[in-house]
Amino acid sequence: MPRVLTFFAILVPVVAVFLVCRSFDVAAHLQLSWPLALHPDSPVDDAQFHVDVPSAGVESDSGVLGHGIVVAEIGDDAAKHQFRRRVVAVGDLHGDLPNAHKVLQMAGVVDETGQWSGGVDFFVQTGDIIDRGDDTIKLYDWIDQLRGEAKAKGGVVLSHLGNHEWMNVIAQERQKMLMTGRIGKTWAGNYTTTSRLPLHPSLGPPNTDYDPSLLSSLSHAAVSFVHGGLAPNYPDLTPFPSRINNLGHTLLRKLQHRNPPPAPHPPNPYPGLPHDATPAEHRLYGTDGPLWYRGWALDSEAKACKAVDDVLQRTGTRRMIMGHTPDFEV
Ligand SMILES: *[C@@H]1O[C@H](CO)[C@@H](O)[C@H](O)[C@H]1NC(C)=O
């Protein structure tokens, strides 16, 4: 597999909604689409929030210039109660360890030895670590290493299952490792299908459900991450993110504990979801489900922009970040 293609696969797919409604240049100086007002009880008076998304270009060995890391600085510059969140999200790594190293180092997530640098608060990987390149297992192990190092330094690694992780666990391609082995265990324990990352300290830890009954104007100061996309017509969006993540959890459990396990595919026929998968679990893995949806990247700008505020409203977020669909025009 030529590195150059993998490199694009890593770098290109990440930015989606940042780019759907705004050009990348504009995204570099992103204004919130409506002012981030503050809850009356919030200790931060007169705070100005800003989301800074510098465009990230990288030169690889092969001379390809790519974009696609989301680096968001969310801060409150009021001197009184200063806080800052540095969030780096990276998409489809697809078995390419050398370029993953480069990208994470460039984004300030790791130092030159590949260890957690302490320079960011959150590192988010939106799924599809597996397939295409040769370094899949090394990548999972490295991300777990970073998860431990981050935790020791007050940082957080958020990991997501992409459609390729699911395809492998459905087809039992690498059987033991992804079922009862350490990769399967870390998927079950450390990976989710989506996440909601509250950005203001008062809003709770990552994956705090959005509570629509909280009439705080800060309540949407959060970002969502998912591999494919949160489609406007997907019926299991809420409560967000626990509804989707509970479905992911039960489906993964059923897949990892099939008894007897289906014969590996190929050469045997594709086994599909387990016979006891519920309709909601089928929707989770459906074309409009969070793992496969491509509408935010492929629909017309008019269509996507018309639908986006409704999804943000229901999920209690201001930005959606996803991988999955390459955009070679970025
Ligand atoms: C989750 O990640 C941590 C930190 O890397 C690791 O020590 C732990 O074993 C993982 N959990 C599971 C269930 O594998």
From TrEMBL:
Named from the GO MF annotations, one term is: hydrolase activity
The record's region (Disordered) falls at 255-274
Coiled-coil stretches, from where to where?
none
Species whose genome carries this gene: Hermanssonia centrifuga
- The residues forming the signal peptide are 1-16
Enumerate the spans annotated as Calcineurin-like phosphoesterase domain: 86-326
The record's section on Pfam families has: Metallophos (PF00149)
Give start-end positions of Pro residues composition bias: 259-272
Question: Which keywords has UniProt assigned to this entry?
Answer: Signal
Judging by the UniProt lineage, the source's domain of life is Eukaryota
Protein name per the record: Calcineurin-like phosphoesterase domain-containing protein
- Gene3D superfamilies linked: 3.60.21.10
